[in-house]
User: Fold this.
Amino acid sequence: MSKVTVAAFRYAPAIGGAENYTRRLLREIGERVDVNIVTLLTTQRTDWLHALIEGERDQPDSYAVDGRAVTALARWPFATRRALNLLAPGYHVPGSPSPWLMGRLLSRPLAGVAAATQVLHNIFMGREAFSAGLLQAARNAGKPFVFTPLRHQRPLGWNSPAFQRLYRLSDAVVALTHGEAEWLAANGADERRLHVIGLGPQNDPAASPNQARDKVGGDGKMVLFLGQLHGYKGFRELLGAARVLEHRRDIQFVFAGPDVRGNGDAFTRAGRNVTWLGPVGEEMRDSLLSACSVLCVPSSRESFGSVRELRER
Assistant:
């Protein structure tokens, strides 16, 4: 039995902010704690609600990342998926009970995850019904449940009734910044069970810039965008800035991150001063961060208070 199971909606080899944060956190923990990982998704898909219901594989898959055991869950039983589909149309209605009810359905197939650990820790991404299912499974098994919401500000979502129940009922709630902790307390988290752990660098500060410069070419200044191509992350705004500065031959705008819902098509109309690398591995990411003159993160909503740490040495 593992001492701690970290449950993630999506995990490596898929890449993203939450996935990278989780991997880095577990690396820093090292061998001090026996930790395994359970995930629902391992691919770069973003059809969150459909993926929550239908899953990715008929049989569970076991593999290792950074020396830790990972279990990718199989699809839910057919009867569970049928019931989830009946609740899905009301999922995004403000104040909807669907996410919590779907979590109740998921708690049954997730019972084995809770039974096989001493502490169940969910680092959020995807859809909150998965988190609700994990919490209810942990409660049924008599196991502590820890929740890291990675709160992003948006009109609907992190302040929904399901999220507020997660804040209120979790045995511990983890925030990355004091500002996030204050918001969580105002939305139901018990301050006595609220913990601010901060967030250090998510990259290797000693990485060489050479790999990135060889990939991108040129010797001018680099403006770097790093992230998935969600609209809210502001990549289109940075493309607009690149158009304004297209006459500057000494500046190159470099975008690194996977496409989302075909948003990468925007780069077909970009100027010669723009390079989109698509998804990159950790070594290239760290090299890009070392090579860039400006890291531009114009996102309208993020949980990670880490932009400064990414660039500072």
